[in-house]
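G., the chain you wanted modeled:
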Amino acid sequence: MLNYEDIYDFLSQQDRPLSKDHFNVPVPPTQLVLNGTTTVIAENNPVVLTCVSDSANPAAIITWKRNNFAFQNNNQPSYSPGSYSGTITTQSYSFAPTRYQDGDVFTCNTDVLNSNAKLLNLTCK
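Predicted structure as tokens:
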């Protein structure tokens, strides 16, 4: 898969001048990380899961699933500058699990990187 560096290197060898400031190529994120607790948690104790996509252009849209069922996360994503004019997307999901959620699997995906979703298996006691 081509990345920004490959395309920029190729184009910079052409006859016309090239500026990274005006270089806009659609590039999907290549990595997705889901951070959260990996220990046993007590019922009704707050849990925060954070999903981060690496640099993408346009910015990645993060979606969430619990046990393979999509759910709406009302927390707004945040955006920060990424490499080669891309954008890093971060979104957190906060909740207080109950014992009925013991063993639930949470997944975060992006709109273009579904095959690289990360899982977190909740252990609630």
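Helices lie at 4-12.

Shout if anything looks off.
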